[in-house]
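This protein record is not my work; I was only asked to verify it. Take the sequence as given and treat only the tokens as open to question. I have pasted the whole thing underneath without changing anything:
***
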Amino acid sequence: MADSRIDVSFAGSVATITVSRPEKLNAFDIDMLKELSAACDAVEANASVRVAILTGAGKAFSAGGDIKAWAAMTPNEFGHAWVRFGHRVFERLATLRVPLIAALNGHALGGGLELAAAADIRITETHIRIGLPETGLGMVPGWSGTQRLVRRFGAQAVRRMALGGEIFSATEAAVLGIVDHVVETGAAMTTAQAYAERIAKRGPAAVEVAKLMIASANGEDNGTAVEALGSILVAKTADLKEGVSAFAEKREPVFKGEW
């Protein structure tokens, strides 16, 4: 990877993406967003990967966006180069073909919570705090905090964080369904690895399709889910093989409707 602040490693069927800027509590700038997108491409390109883990280096999971990275931007730059681009990158992360587990080893605030929300499963250490403090800065959540978070966690929990500025403990977040498992401090990564192995033992095709179906039922990117499922199904048919062969041989295809 060109930017060492986003690290991707592979161990068997498990990929691990680590946000590594501990001196800034793993806050993102533009280059890190670009490398996170590249990390998604690397995971997708590795056919042996069945599950991915997302975590942060040091004491924080992620403090979200680096204020210094966007504070001097013009409104146009902020809206397009920062918010819209970051939104696309997080969407890329959320739609990985494999399940994604977030190992929250430290606080997840603002964009850090939006990052965690892109995962399918969130494993959280007991000491962490979760919230959306943006309105306290005169800003609003911009990386799907009012969209994906509402779909996945419910509007009221998001209202309490975004409007009331409430910061939830790990236990409170678990009660609200924002995180799935709360573990002792220092245990998030080992627990995530064990959960990843659990997923990796299941049928990879079934897991991939189940993830798409669940996303579709939750109103997340229905068009992509439907077309991906349809394409996977058709790609396994004898008719497709016949169509490709006929094209290569410059003849009319003879379709039999065989699955």
